[in-house]
Amino acid sequence: MPLVTSAEMFKKAYHGGYAVGAFNVNNMEIVQGITEACQEQKAPVILQVSKGARAYANHTYLVKMVEAAVIECPDVPIALHLDHGSDFEICKSCIDGGFTSVMFDGSAMPYEDNIKVAKQVVEYAHAHGVVVEAELGQLAGVEDDVVAEDHSYTDPAQVEDFVTKTGVDSLAIAIGTSHGAYKFKPGQKPQLRFDILEEVSRRLPEFPIVLHGSSSVPQEFVKKVNEYGGKMPDAIGIPEEMLREAAKGAVCKINIDSDIRLAITAAIREHFVKHPEDFDPRAYLKPARQAVKDMVAHKLVNVLGCNGKA
Q: How many CB atoms lie within 10 A of CB 263?
């Protein structure tokens, strides 16, 4: 099947009590690992490209790799999504360049400016058959060019007005997740504001909600990175059981990036230590790709609950 939008995915996810995984991609091995897991688990998937990924790998290469995955995984609905589009121009470029979904992130803007630009993106996207995600509230942390020191929870009183005025197709909200691998301080109890999620869901019935910054930062990866020469003290993520609970409700899309980076880095570091004679990139990228595949398969079944939903 060709690339699809996330509209039908979200409708099924909302009523099916699961979420679709939105995984960030930067190179061929990541695309392969994710989509091979989805093909085997019969799971729909959203492949996300950030501004940083476009700068690193080139827009055209990324699109063509995703198009290759569509051919290789014919049973899997795949959407190609822009993650954290900072302005109308980058959203337009991705819409014109073959993406089926874009996110405009105006969460750091004044409320009225966020509405204004989001509406502009929606009008252009919908005219080209593309869906739009926007964000209310702001997540702390670091991810590529997205940097925020402070966290501001989504105000449920704003969501109806925002969605009505912009016409967006899904909404990312801030309930306690954050970007990067250091989401909580040592000794701090991870928690999500499910009360905000429930109130947003009440005000926007059957409307798809998105969670950014939702990597769980598996400690086996952190341990392996540190064991084989890395330095990632106190890396802590979102507990998987909390994400699974969110996926049972209105959350239809859960973003995962740091866990992919950790899986790859742990596998490569281990390979370099155990096989110092290797200099062929294929030798160490093969286990890295497998690590991504195994991690994604686990997420599809145990966190997102979207296996068998393709």
A: 26
Spatial separation of the C-alpha atoms in residues 227 and 54, rounded to whole Å: 32
Name the β-bridge partners of 80.
47
| Rounded-to-integer distance, Cα 77 and Cα 241, Å | 26
In 3D, which of 169, 176, 210 has the Cα closest to residue 196? Answer: 176
Catalytic positions are: 83
What gap in Å lies between CA 141 and CA 82, rounded to an integer?
Answer: 19
Q: What pTM value is reported for the model?
A: 0.94
| CB burial of residue 7 (10 Å; 0-12, 13-18, 19+) | middle
Distance CA 79, CA 100 (A): 6
- 3, 98 Cβ separation under 8 angstroms: yes
Question: Mind listing the pLDDT tens digit for each residue in 76-125?
Answer: 999 999 999 999 999 999 999 999 999 999 999 999 999 999 999 999 99
Q: How far apart are CA 33 and CA 22, in angstroms?
A: 14
Q: Which amino acid is at 210?
A: V
Q: How long is the chain?
A: 310
pLDDT band at 189 (very low <50, low <70, confident <90, very high): confident
